[in-house]
Automatic annotation (TrEMBL):
Residues 264-411 form the AAA+ ATPase domain. GO terms for biological process: protein quality control for misfolded or incompletely synthesized proteins. This is AAA family ATPase. One of its GO terms (molecular function) is ATP binding. PANTHER family: LON PROTEASE (PTHR43718), LON PROTEASE HOMOLOG, MITOCHONDRIAL (PTHR43718:SF2). It comes from Bradyrhizobium cytisi. Residues 164-176 have a biased composition (Basic and acidic residues). Residues 164-189 are annotated as: Disordered.
Length: 478
């Protein structure tokens, strides 16, 4: 370990220790003056001979130490047995020393020991002019790197789980405290929290509301957190990695958060041709900002479904934004209205377009009358993002309440910028770390370029997926 740290006195120290046991040994003098590999190996062999003759194990340890500090990075199998012998000695020494050294030193010794053991097998991967010991330290670190990352991730995951349990327990304790008198919640609401639903103790015990309240217990009479605005440059960089062709849309969306303590986006309508990635961008925008995303398929929804159904009906259900809040356990969720222009135009159960007006206006969404709970909800911090292929079918009241931005389609020039994000996304779908999926080589990249002239990102994903599948097939055959 002194050698790894760059100490300059190691050879002198070894010579001094050898001189204590074998005074005036000419082989030690030759190594000290010349310092050549040949002299080191001759000295080590002489020490081994004397260790056997004198029954002195310390001489054998000194011999292995001389070999360790003198051997170069292997270029072939010329000194394979010498490397192997030092490796065995290191393993034995590590097994003994690891029982009584402190944790950090134990980790360092383990990295070096297994790095040295792997040296002969990694001849072509290591710098040739670097001593074997220095390369062993680097190789051992690289061998343990993923284990270290996994251990750190496990510790962080455990910490987050404990933190979540603590917060959940605090929320439950707070809910028990405020159920008797909901008005007390307002007096004790902490900063960056919001009480969305307030019900009296009588309503909480009502049999009519029993089935409705069940899924909403996490949101009733509880001060729910408001997700705080993250560092916008980090969010921008994360979105640019996945959508390099949509920089104007990213900046347009994030500009709404400048100076805000908590995340709240004014209603945003993203218009663009099919396949360009509008829905995925809206979802990823919410996820990058730390919000729970609730997706509603507008083509299969109407006013009664989204806005909630009255308590009189057996299928009574609260409005979708409240369901999103209860599911996400936060007051500023993101509601994604996908393909808004395809919403039904029949008014039997109320048009979705008409129902949305009450949610999009600041004057009404802070006291939205939920038909199922029959109480006012504070939905003022809910963000709404809608997607549409075209604006023509949308009525003017809807257009007036949304900020409208056009989502571009990528061109062939964006291929190289898109490929890393597409490969990373496909790796996540496969459930593997993206570092295990190498980038496309030149032939694979050209194949993708021939079949994707730009346009639909969905088509690009299918092409890249086919290339990766073909790569896996070839790998399995070999």
């Amino acid at each position: 370990m002194l050698l790894v740290d760059g100490a300059s006195f190691i050879q002198e120290r070894l010579v001094a220790e050898i001189d204590e046991l074998c005074p005036q040994l000419p082989h030690a003098v030759a190594w000290a003056t010349g310092g050549s590999l040949a002299a080191a190996l001759v000295l080590a062999d002489e020490l081994d001979r004397r260790a056997a003759a004198q029954n002195e194990p310390a001489l054998r340890s000194l011999a292995d130490s001389v070999r360790l500090v003198s051997l170069p990075t292997p270029r072939n199998d010329e000194f394979f047995e010498v490397y192997r012998r030092v490796g065995k000695a290191l393993v034995q020494a590590f097994n003994v020393s690891s029982q009584h050294v402190e944790e950090q030193l134990r980790c360092d010794l383990e990295q070096f020991t297994y790095g040295w053991a792997a040296l002969p097998a990694c001849t072509d991967l290591l710098p040739k002019k670097v001593p074997a010991a220095a390369n062993a330290a680097q190789l051992g670190y690289r061998m343990a790197e993923h284990r270290i990352i996994a251990a750190r991730a496990a510790i962080r995951r455990k910490f987050l789980e404990e933190e979540e349990r603590r917060k959940r327990q605090e929320s439950e304790d707070r809910a028990e405290t405020v159920q008797q008198e909901p008005s007390a919640v307002a007096e004790s609401t902490p900063d960056h929290h919001l009480v969305v639903v307030r019900l009296s103790d009588l309503d909480m015990k009502s049999q009519k509301l029993k089935d409705i309240i069940g899924p909403l217990k996490n949101a009733i009479n509880i001060a729910l957190p408001l997700v705080q605005t993250p560092a916008l440059h980090d969010a921008r960089n994360a979105l640019l990695f996945e959508f390099p062709y949509a920089v104007d849309v990213i900046d347009f969306a994030l500009a709404d958060l400048v100076g805000r303590a908590t995340v709240h986006l004014r209603p945003l309508l993203i218009v663009g041709e099919p396949g360009g990635g509008k829905s995925r961008f809206a979802r990823r925008l919410g996820e990058v900002l730390g919000l729970h995303v609730w997706r509603t398929d507008a083509s299969r929804s109407d006013g009664a479904v989204f806005g909630g159904t009255d308590r009189r009906w057996y299928s009574s259900e609260p409005c979708h934004p409240l369901l999103a809040i209860a599911h996400g356990k936060m007051a500023n969720v993101l509601v994604l209205l996908d393909e808004l222009e395809k919403a039904a135009t029949r008014s039997d159960y109320g048009r979705l377009w008409d129902c949305l007006l009450g949610f999009l206006e600041a004057e009404t969404n802070c006291r939205y009358p939920d038909p199922a709970l029959q109480t006012n909800l504070d939905l003022s911090q809910v963000s709404y993002i809608a997607t549409a292929n075209r604006l023509d079918p949308l009525p003017s009241p809807i257009r007036d309440r949304f900020r409208i931005v056009t989502f571009p389609k990528p061109t062939a020039k964006d291929l190289d910028a898109l490929l890393p994000a597409v490969i990373a996304d496909l790796a996540n779908e496969r459930g593997v770390n993206r570092s295990w999926v190498p980038p496309l080589d030149g032939i694979e990249r050209e194949a993708v370029a021939r079949h994707w002239p730009g346009g639909s990102v969905r088509r690009l994903r299918r092409i890249v997926e086919a290339v990766l599948r073909e790569r896996d097939i070839r790998a399995s055959r070999n």
